[in-house]
Specification:
This protein is 81% helix and 0% strand. The chain has 466 residues and is mostly helical. The chain folds into two domains: 1-254, no CATH class; 273-466, no CATH class. Helix 4 packs antiparallel against helix 6 (144-159), helix 11 (314-341) packs antiparallel against helix 13 and helix 13 packs parallel to helix 15 (428-465). The two termini are 18 Å apart.
């Protein structure tokens, strides 16, 4: 049912319920981003070589983490459906099987992280930087099994409407990360001075801390007693794990396509010089922070829509979906206008270099344009996942990022001479950001169409069944 046909009290009630779930997720996401920022900042104060090595290691670790988040996300719609249907007794088994899945994914991710170090052998970087980047990945790979299991419990907790624990745990982990980085990077209180490698050890400790803390919290809180997953031991169940993988792997591929596209763009603009690279990183960092808002709304929206579907009410599910998309779009409009109006001030807060700040401000104007599409696509994508549809959104994202965004960005940004239809002068970073706006808009429109078709189809089937 379109939003204009809803009574405003119902809309306000849904917005309030959605925000109650979303704001703790937002704070937790910002705290998690803060951990990465602390790693880079601490390494930068150690030495330029430490900063370079940690940055290279973090770039690969970030792609793995984002992909894992997607693969583990299959627990969200599954548990939310059972929650909405009142089938609380079925939730513990889902969580237990998801944890078995997380063990396998975690071990695979460890192997990939260690294998990815060969990439540094083919890069023109200083030997000391190469050695640090390799050691960083070797150490931090031990955090991946804990991260996989934590994301399962994160999705389970979110799906039963318990989001505040993750916020508190993320804030505690951020504080612990600052402390451990200071101790290990700079060798305070007689500890060995590990430099950038200390960031890896600190991250490993923090991610295992998050896993242990959420298990402790769940054990102590009455909110988890009806669905407590650790009441008995249960071995891995092949069909159950395969079902979760069928849902989660396409989401993981989707997240990988997006994160890897942004990483590749950063490499492609590197040839235009330090000023362009610095401006690109400033704009990308700021946009990544703003993206946490629609992303948090999208995660909360997934639970709200899936619970309505589990309760057998597709009309309510569609209402919740479009209200959530409207909220995400309104937030994106607000941040877009703010970014456009304050572009110069934002860029100036990052750097005192006039040339870098000027170019970063120009890129922030492009960012303001695509925030509307970006906010819409992430909200609609999560609403679609609530219907347990993940493969078609994966294809849409692959097409948008790898079929449109990257090729168009290369044409506009690099203007290769062998292309007959190309700009007279390469647009450099502006060309890639123009392509990002186009790709995200295509993804937003295609996913919106898909949500409309899915919601209408589910209502139609429900009516025929009735």
């Amino acid at each position: 049912m379109p939003l204009q046909r809803l009574r405003s009290p119902l809309v306000r009630l849904e917005i309030a319920s959605l925000w109650q779930l979303a704001w703790p997720i937002l704070v937790g996401q910002l705290a998690t981003v803060g951990m990465n920022a602390v790693d880079v900042a601490m390494a930068g104060h150690a030495s330029a070589e430490d900063l370079a090595g940690v940055s290279l290691g973090v770039s690969i670790f970030h792609i793995l983490m984002v992909t894992i988040m997607g693969v583990m996300m299959s627990v969200n719609p599954t548990v939310s459906h059972h929650m909405g249907a009142g089938e609380l007794s079925r939730i513990p088994q889902v969580v237990r099987q998801a944890l078995w899945k997380s063990l396998g994914i975690g071990l695979v991710a460890m192997a990939l992280a260690n294998g990815a170090t060969v990439v540094f052998d083919h890069m023109a970087i200083e030997p000391v930087v190469r050695a640090l980047a390799k050691d960083f990945l070797h150490v931090i790979s031990f955090a991946l099994p804990a991260f996989c299991a934590y994301r399962v419990l994160y999705g389970y907790s979110t799906s039963i409407n318990q989001t505040k624990p993750m916020m508190v745990i993320a804030l505690l982990a951020l504080a612990l990360n600052v402390l451990l980085n200071a101790l290990l990077v700079f060798g305070l209180f007689g500890l060995p001075r590990l430099g950038g490698l200390g960031c890896a050890y600190a991250t490993v400790a923090c991610l295992w801390f998050e896993l242990a803390t959420i298990v402790w919290w769940m054990h102590r809180s009455p909110a988890y007693r009806a669905t407590w997953p650790f009441g008995r031991f249960e071995g891995p169940n092949g069909p159950g794990i395969r079902k979760l993988l069928r849902l989660g792997l396409p989401i993981g591929v989707t997240f990988f396509a997006e994160s890897s596209a942004f990483s590749l763009i950063a490499l492609l603009v590197a040839g235009f010089g330090t000023t362009v690279v610095a401006a690109h990183q400033i704009a990308l960092n700021f946009v990544s922070l703003l993206f946490m808002l629609p992303l948090s709304i999208g995660v909360a929206l997934l639970s709200r829509v899936a619970q309505a579907l589990g309760a057998g009410d597709p009309v309510l599910a569609r209402q919740r979906a479009w209200v959530g998309v409207g909220v995400a779009l309104a937030c994106a409009l607000f941040t877009a206008v703010g970014t456009a109006l304050l572009a110069q001030q934002i860029a100036g807060a990052y750097t005192s270099d006039v040339q870098v700040a000027t170019l970063a401000a120009q890129l922030l104007l492009f960012a303001a344009v695509f925030q509307m599409s970006d906010g819409t696509q992430v909200a609609v994508a999560n609403a679609v996942r609530a219907y347990k549809v993940t493969r078609l959104p994966m294809l849409i994202h692959l097409g948008a990022f790898w079929g449109i965004c990257l090729p168009l960005g290369c044409v506009l940004g690099l203007a290769p001479a062998w292309l007959p239809w190309r700009p007279a002068v390469p647009m450099a970073a502006q060309g890639f950001w123009t392509a990002l706006a186009v790709g995200l808009t295509v993804a937003a429109l295609a996913l919106t169409w898909l949500l409309q078709r899915l919601s209408a189809s589910r209502i139609g089937r429900s009516g025929r069944a009735a």
